Amino acid sequence: MTMFFAQRVILGKTGFAEVPPTLKAGVKKFLLDHGLEFLIEEE
Fold first, then answer.
1. Which long-range contacts (CB under 8 A, 24 or more apart) does 1-7 make?
2. What is the DSSP track for 18-41?
3. pLDDT by residue (tens digit) across 8-19?
4. CA-CA distances (angstroms) from residue 2 to 15, 19?
5. How many CB atoms lie within 10 A of CB 32?
6. What is the rounded CA–CA span in Å between residue 22 and residue 35?
């Protein structure tokens, strides 16, 4: 599920703030590891 939400954030279909709380840490790590930290917005 982490990869699913990471891909949705990358594609712009889901905002990082909309990622379920239990998956946020994993999605954040994935985005940071791939140089996509600009997609991590907590609004």
1. 2/26, 2/27, 2/30, 3/30, 6/30, 6/31
2. GS-TTTHHHHHHHHHHTT-GGG--
3. 999 999 999 999
4. 14, 9
5. 12
6. 22
